[in-house]
Write a structure and sequence with these properties.
The chain is mostly helical. It is built from eight helices and two strands, in the order αααααααββα. It is elongated. It starts with 20 loop residues before the first helix and ends in an 8-residue tail after the last helix.
Length: 258
């Protein structure tokens, strides 16, 4: 991997420490310095959730980046990054501000996703919660790497609406029977109708208020024409379960073999 930082390149990272796609995109959009990216990765900050945990608030993050000397009743805090990764002079402060900007985005995003998942977990009748597209891309990349003979495309990748639905059922431990005709791929037109979707009320003063909005798509069953089509959809269903398990494991859910 060479400078400048390229979010599409994943071959230069240490084994087992490739940042998830969502974090790579944030680092790239904010023009994070390559050396700083690699230092964070080496210390295990490879996901939006982990980056959000860099500090409880802006002051705490600032202390970890700049360091803090000991004082009366105050313990010292060592810089979390190797001093050699910083640029000289005022440029270092600009790099710190960039990191804090990314941290703020990660913290907000993680808080919103966590709140939605908690509500969905305790309400088995709640509508599906959308798995962020960048999270889906992360799982597609991993599957394509683990199974190079599959190589998901629009013609073989499970439809994102179905992915959201099954992912939500998995989180609630409430699987429902899936008719084979409901297994659709991204290239298929699944039709649209109004449904309730859990989201945040962005117009409210309290941006943490959860509401139900009539927005989104629903899956319409496909007509199975022959045995080959049926077997193809079974294959897509296996891929879908694999993708959902990858996402669940990354979110900390345990997958048990029975």
């Amino acid at each position: 991997m060479t400078s400048p930082f390229d979010p599409r390149e994943i071959s230069g990272y240490p084994t087992g420490k490739v940042p998830e796609n969502a974090l790579r995109q944030l680092l790239w959009k904010n023009a994070m310095k390559y050396e700083i990216v690699m230092e964070f990765v080496a210390k295990g900050f490879t996901s939006v959730a982990k980056f959000a945990a860099l500090g409880a608030d802006e002051a705490a993050v600032g202390h970890k980046l700049r360091g803090r000397p000991a004082g009366t009743g105050v313990a010292s805090i060592a810089e979390i990054l190797d001093p050699s990764v910083w640029s000289a002079g005022a440029q270092k402060e600009a790099e710190i501000i960039t990191i804090m900007t990314i941290w703020a985005v990660c913290k907000t995003r993680q808080k919103k996703l966590s709140d939605l998942e908690v509500v969905a977990y305790f309400n088995s009748e709640a509508p599906p919660i959308q798995i962020p597209p960048e999270e889906k891309q992360q799982d597609i990349e991993k599957l394509n790497s683990d199974y190079p003979d599959l190589q998901l495309t629009n013609e073989t990748c499970p439809h994102f609406d179905l992915w959201d639905d099954i992912g939500s059922q998995f989180a609630r431990s409430a699987f429902k029977y899936i008719g084979i005709g409901m297994v659709r791929v991204r290239s298929e037109d699944v039709g649209k109708k109004s449904r309730f979707q859990l989201d945040f009320d962005e117009s409210a003063a309290d941006l943490t208020q959860l509401i139900f909005k009539t927005d989104g798509t629903s899956i319409a069953a496909a007509k199975i024409e022959n045995v080959a089509d049926c077997m193809f959809r079974f294959k897509v269903l296996w891929i879908l379960f694999h993708l959902v398990c990858q996402y669940a494991i990354r979110k900390g859910l345990k997958i048990y073999a029975r």
